[in-house]
């Protein structure tokens, strides 16, 4: 790969990406444009601007992408009820395609010929960033310093930072207790004190959720309104997508909802242990499944559940911009035409349960399921023929077995 002339760097303002900024300048002699996305990670982003200015970034982009993140990425994913390996709500995975999208767009706006990220060569994020970038611009160069440089230890990183007068927070001089990724959907903690999966995670790892044992002794009820599969209101108050997820985080976090301790299979081959907090997403998933229970036909619902693991795996593995994900999305979105109504959740000591759901689009018929007189809505005698037809092949199999065994 020829040396880039201008690079757009996904920049957090932290030590690692600050070192990358300086390394790009010294290694390639190129201009560096920084891009910092506000995805609801809960950090003040102005320090990142000042740091980028001090380090000679040629252009600085800091953008609030919270609404786009929830509207165009989180909500479509939740229409599918996506869970990776049956448990993980994909909080890190779903943020990467949006960051990559803006990196490629900013490269086009600024005339840059390359983009760069701070993901290591051991994780999934390098795959997600780069697959998304190439899907959007097949000619873009992608620089992954962690796969190129010889700064292979924390000591070497600190030495590089001191040599180039990059500010180092005091706690960065020692070993960080664990690594954190955060956005409006979740927090993810990995590494160090969490690397032994046999050891319970210390309570200080959790940042968004109250310990369920310390949560309020009284349950709280919350009602979430849906239109065509997307949440649109909380307790009758209309809100934007990002506002809804922010409020659900607050409600779920206060009651200790959404904690997950998971050993997952990374796309690159190894297993890793992560501690995830997804309070708002956990409420949203329970509510969405609740409204689907009364608005989706059985065939639709069961097919969706069959498609979901494949859809979730595509997102986890970095294929958000693939044609197969878009095909599945089209089917999922089609299923949501009547997923409109309201769900009532009960939050208590780390649990969230759907305890009520109603909709003008409901397929639920009390007349058909009642144990009381159904006034002719359903003829129970019809079940006999239904059972006989479905039993026919089972009878033939049993008869053959008896004949051969006899």
Automatic annotation (TrEMBL):
Keywords: Amino-acid biosynthesis, Arginine biosynthesis, ATP-binding, Cytoplasm, Ligase, Nucleotide-binding. ATP binds at residues 10-18, 37, 118. Belongs to the argininosuccinate synthase family. Type 1 subfamily. This is Argininosuccinate synthase. The lineage of its organism: Bacteria, Pseudomonadati, Pseudomonadota, Alphaproteobacteria, Rhodobacterales. L-citrulline binds at residues 88, 93, 124, 128, 179, 188, 264, 276. GO terms for biological process: argininosuccinate metabolic process; L-arginine biosynthetic process; urea cycle. Gene3D superfamilies: Argininosuccinate synthetase, chain A, domain 2, HUPs, Single helix bin. Homotetramer. It holds the Pfam family Arginosuc_synth. Its main location: cytoplasm. GO terms for cellular component: cytoplasm. L-aspartate binds at residues 120, 124-125. Residues 6-167 form the Arginosuccinate synthase-like N-terminal domain. The gene is argG. One of its GO terms (molecular function) is argininosuccinate synthase activity. It is found in: Cytoplasm. Its EC number is 6.3.4.5. CDD domains: ASS. Residues 178-396 form the Arginosuccinate synthase C-terminal domain. It comes from the Bacteria. InterPro entries: Arginosuc_syn_C (IPR048268), Arginosuc_syn_N (IPR048267), Arginosuc_synth (IPR001518), Arginosuc_synth_CS (IPR018223), Arginosuc_synth_type_1_subfam (IPR023434), AS_cat/multimer_dom_body (IPR024074), Rossmann-like_a/b/a_fold (IPR014729). It catalyses: L-citrulline + L-aspartate + ATP = 2-(N(omega)-L-arginino)succinate + AMP + diphosphate + H(+). Pathway: Amino-acid biosynthesis; L-arginine biosynthesis; L-arginine from L-ornithine and carbamoyl phosphate: step 2/3.
